[in-house]
Amino acid sequence: MKKLMLIVLCVCVVSLVYAEEPRYVGVKECKICHKKLVEKWERTAHAKAFERIEIKNAVKEPDCLRCHVTAFNAGGYKMDDPNASKFEAVQCEACHGPGSQHIKIAKESDTEKSGDKALGLVTPSVVTCKKECHKKAHFRIFTYEEYWPLIEHKREKTIK
Ligand code: HEC
Ligand code: HEC
Ligand code: HEC
User: Is the pLDDT of residue 8 over 80?
Assistant: First the structure.
């Protein structure tokens, strides 16, 4: 009987975790575990995307923000929101999706489970780059072959 209760309890906890909507949390949270990846990202143009529109005095322009911040009006950057600064520039979550649930599971178990797509992370590809961002006139011509090496990164074997 006890065993059965325990199983029921486990199932409940797991389904609760999965039921919770994944939220955007901002790159600072990713740095706690993916320190090297974040430091690498900090040296890329994506990390400077907000500065680019600052120098053009365009940080109040929705039509600039939609590509120069993370998850604009979609759970991330929102103009005049007290949390807006957390989501400046093109962060991890702009490509990988909202990370709150991934972090929660990673903190609990530190296993492969944290990468489960049901938790909100997505696997980005060339479609991600072109769909919303690298597609309009003020950019150079985008090819994945030419651009991926500029931000190339992969899984770390040991995280910490
Ligand atoms: C509590 C620690 C922790 C935090 C915080 C964390 N991660 Fe992770 N992450 C992991 C672990 C552990 C793995 C699996 C091991 C690996 O990939 O090296 C992982 C893997 C990933 C993967 C690969 C998933 C896959 O299997 O396809 C992505 C993408 C990722 N994290 C993105 C993020 C993003 C974005 C953030 C910030 C929103 C973040 N992580 C914050 C621990 C964390
Ligand atoms: C459809 C997405 C998108 C929109 C909308 C957008 N940008 Fe960009 N912007 C980009 C991308 C992608 C790059 C990187 C271009 C490259 O290196 O190929 C970029 C680069 C830049 C740069 C640095 C390179 C350069 O050309 O000087 C500036 C400055 C900039 N954008 C300003 C703006 C301003 C101001 C607006 C609003 C009027 C805006 N962007 C709207 C996607 C966008
Ligand atoms: C501009 C989009 C973009 C940004 C920003 C970005 N990534 Fe990625 N990331 C990708 C792409 C594309 C891949 C390659 C996916 C593939 O081919 O498996 C990738 C791969 C990864 C992988 C390896 C996944 C695997 O299954 O092996 C991890 C881990 C990861 N990213 C974490 C991060 C973290 C942490 C950040 C922020 C510091 C970040 N990424 C920022 C696009 C991005």
Answer: no
* Spatial CA neighbour of 41 closest among 138, 156, 137: 156
Counted domains in the chain? 1
Ligand nearest to the CA of 44: 3
Asked, for residue 61, whether it belongs to a domain, the answer is yes
By residue range, what is the domain housing residue 91? 21-151
We report the CATH number of the domain holding residue 76 as 1.10.1130.10
* Cα pseudo-dihedral 62, 66, 69, 71, rounded to 10: 120
**Structural domain includes residue 7:** no
Instruction: Answer whether residue 6 is part of any domain.
Output: no
Name which residue sits closest to atom 40 of ligand 1, judged by CA. Answer: 30
The answer, yes or no, to whether any atom of ligand 1 lies below 6 A from the CB of 32, is yes
pTM, to two decimals:
0.91
33 touches 160 (CB < 8 A): yes
pLDDT in tens, 87-124: 999 999 999 999 999 999 999 876 677 878 888 999 99
Closest ligand to Cα 129 = 3
